[in-house]
Amino acid sequence: MPEPTLPRGFRDLMPNEALFRTKLIRTVESTLSLYGFLVIDTPSLEKLSVLKAKGGIGEEGNLIFEIKDDDSGMRYDHTVSLARYVSMHRELPMPFKRYEVGKVWRREEPQHMRYREIMQADIDIVGGDPLLADTEIIAALSSLFDKLKMPHRIEINDRSMLEAMMSKIGIESTMFNKVEHELDRLEKVGEAKVVESLIGIGIQNSIVDQLMQLVGSEANNEALLDRMDSVIGDKSKTKHIREIIKLFKQYGSSGKIEVKFSMVRGLDYYTGVIFEFKDASEKKEKMTLAGGGRYDNLVGLYGSQSIPAVGAAIGIDRLMDMLKAPESPEYSSTQVFIACVKKENYPYSLKIAQAFRARGISTETNLTERNLSNQLSYSSSTKVPYVVIVGAAEEKAGTLKLRNMADGREEIMGIEDAVKIITGVSDSKK
């Protein structure tokens, strides 16, 4: 028999982790729904021609899980699928605000908090006023992290502004993507290695010095944008970010926007504003919570009409790791387990179970041959808050014995009284 193992970069979730993820996704969905985002669903497989229409994730050919002998592959994100979706469904109302939660797959080297199979939530606005749409995406995500009680800050940049600056200091447009990919590595590998790489791809030393002085500088938002204005010689290039920062304040979110010229993001399809949500807690290891930006050309690759869009992705798996899902004590959504003293009491236990379920109480019954002691041990292992015990006496009287598993107290009562206790509804609350 082969040894049971998992492929690298994939993982199982224990019941408490899976329940944690389910509730996390519900919070994501409920928050995005408050902002009017519609839910859609797209296939896990896309045509390779769709996945490779744009070099969206750099060397995407090396990252796609391709299906052997078929012109298809596993989606590596939800954005390319959305672009294909919008081009096929021209009847959609504009602006089209959507979210989608589902798994994506990337054939890359597994790392800490980085998997090959990823549960990801995407939020996008196709069409609409760029300023309003960009700010709405950022605000909705900030609201989500507020709900999750995750302190965060928002790093923001603009690729069109950055490229205007690069052009001004003498970098050819054919080199923009290469330079941006090197800048994207700045935080990870440090300035010295980025400088070495920039010189290695043919950027003059004097130009590299100018570039690093600007992208590596630290100051408040206003000072940084004023410095960019002076380099470009055109204040219109920083106007969009300035207006986003101003409008964002109206949402009342706790996140603070910080201009960071070295934050580029590795996706080539971004055309304008880009942003990342960073962990702002006391943890030593600062992680990215979400990221996204404006991509005005992607939808046009799959149809004759080019439609501007902005979006962001949230890594559900990473959030679970940061929120310590494995430590979650909640193992089951079941509220009550019904134990039978003897097997012949099972039909009566079903009557009680169905009465509970009719009132919205998640209820489990004993489905195997085991004595009362083992039934109680099982219910304890699944961390069920209440156990109902029924035997001949309870069945004859039409009652039940309700045990609170937290303190071990037991009381004989009727079904309706048990419902009130389990649901936390007393006569005084009616």
What is the level-2 CATH architecture name of the largest domain?
A: 2-Layer Sandwich
Q: How are the strands ordered across the major sheet?
A: 1-4-5-10-9-8-6-7
> What's the helix count?
16
Overall pLDDT: 91
What is the CA-based Rg, rounded? Answer: 28 Å
Q: Main beta sheet, described?
A: 8 strands, mixed
How many discrete structural domains? Answer: 2
Q: What would CATH call the class of the largest domain?
A: Alpha Beta
* General shape: elongated
Explain how this protein is built:
With 430 residues, the chain is α/β, with parallel strands linked by helices. The protein folds into 2 domains: 15-327, 2-Layer Sandwich (BirA Bifunctional Protein, domain 2), CATH 3.30.930.10; 336-429, Rossmann fold, CATH 3.40.50. Helix content is 38%, strand content 19%. It has helices at residues 15-34, 48-51, 79-88, 130-147, 159-168, 176-183, 186-189, 191-200, 205-215, 221-232, 236-248, 316-322, 346-358, 372-381, 392-397, 415-423, and strands spanning 38-39, 45-47, 72-74, 96-105, 117-126, 152-158, 256-259, 273-279, 288-294, 309-315, 336-340, 363-365, 386-390, 400-404, 410-413. It has an 8-stranded mixed beta sheet. It has a 5-stranded mixed beta sheet with strand order 12-11-13-14-15, with helices on both faces. Strands 2-3 form a two-stranded antiparallel ribbon. Helix 4 (130-147) runs parallel beside helix 11 (236-248) and helix 8 (191-200) packs antiparallel against helix 9 (205-215). The model is unreliable at 426-430 (pLDDT under 50).
